[in-house]
Structures are given as C-alpha cells and as structure tokens.
Amino acid sequence: MLSKLLKYEYRATARFLLPLYLGVLFVIMVNALFLRMGDFFPAFALGDSYSLILALLLIACVLGFLAVVIAGFVTGIQRFYGLLGTRGYLMFSLPVTANQLIASKLICATSWMIGAFLLGCVFLRMMAFPFGEENLVVIAPNSGVALFCHCLALLAMLCCSILFFYFCIALGGQWPQNRLIATILCYFVITFVLQIVLFFAMIALALIALNTPAGVTVSSFFSSLSPYQAISVVACCMTLFFAAACAILWVLTRYYLTKKLNLA
Hints:
This protein has helices spanning 2-40, 42-45, 48-83, 87-91, 98-126, 144-172, 179-211, 213-223, 227-258. By secondary structure, the chain is mainly alpha-helical. It starts with a helix and ends in a 6-residue tail after the last helix.
C-alpha cells in the first residue's frame, strides 16, 4: 500500500514541482550557453548588453534555485498539513496505517529536496561548461568514506527537519479551529526550548571534555585520527543523533495521528 501512496503523492506534487524544476533547468542551460557565447564572439562579449543579459540570467538562475528549494520544502509540509484537514477524512478511511502515511509524505518531500540539491549541482557544473581538467572534481584518496558519511548526516538532518514540522502540525491539530496558529506557536515554542536545552548540553559536554579523564581520552582519540577519519567519525555521530531524533519525532507524530486524531 505504501507504493500506491507514493504514486499518489508523486502525481499530486509533480503537477506543480516538475514544470518548475524543468523550467529552472532550462534557464540554467540557457545561462550556461550564453556564458560561453563570449568565447566565440569576443566583440559581443565586450558590450554592455551582453553583461546585462548575463547578469539577468544569473539572477534568474539563483532565484530559480531558491524557488525550487522553497517550493519543494513547502509543498512537502503542505501535503502533510492537508492530511489533518478535510482530505484526512478520505486518507484515514483507507486501509493504511499511520506509519505508511507518514512514510509516504516524508519520502516524497525528501526526494524533491534531493532533486533540488542535484539541480544546484547541475547549475554549478553548467557554469563551468565546457568541462576541462581544471573543472573536474577529484576525490582525494581515503575521502570516499568521509563523503559518504557526510551525505548520510545531511540526509538524516533533512529528514529530521521535515519530521519536526510534521510533529508540530500534528500537535497543532489538537486545536482544529485554530490549527495554523497553533502549529506556528508549537514550532516556535518547541524550537526555543530545544535551543536552550542544546545550549546547556553543549556547555556540559565542554566541561566534561575539559575536566574529566573521559574527555581527555576522546581528545587523544581524535588527535590520533587523520582529517578524513575525524570527519567520518563526527558525521557518523551526527547521523546517529539525527536518526534518534527522527525516531522520537516519528513516534510522537504517529501517536497524535492514531490516539489524538482531531480532524478539522
């Protein structure tokens, strides 16, 4: 059933996001080709019109990239927000579980955000078209594991941020008549509390690292590692931290969708 939910989600979101992504990709290609026109027509490249058009195209590419990032994220949040509205009467009547509903929304939103990231990579590479040896990205020896761990940490961070919004929406759904205001208040209140907790937690960890044998052991452990190994260890710790946060947010969101469901 999860595959059918994903198919429904992708169809619903692609109606708006796919033309936007393709449009931004087209602008990026036009910008890259126009940028290289100066190499073939030096006289035209010296004119003010060429510089003006190139600047406008570059601004259009940057604004387009920001648009796909914001649109992808907002669409993913809006799809879950609509789940607790009138659409929820249909979705919760289907033979699906709350886990499947959360998973379908999360996978769809995450994949669109990854697509926006890849579009940004295309933009950076097209700016260097045609490719030469000086434009190639060379992965240093022994850095592949560090890069992989870093990507995992970023993916876990992205999923955690999306699930945090889902939890705030589910919690704000306890007040269906003022659900939007309640969701916004929940987001800011929980964020403020988490910032205070993390601030004091960082201070406590710093004191432990400076004044305890365990902290000295950890410091000596990191000093014995190479830079890429240290990055890998830190990225793995971040991945575990955000994975644990994702699990907590998932359980809390599922609880409110099953035990405390209050549709508008």
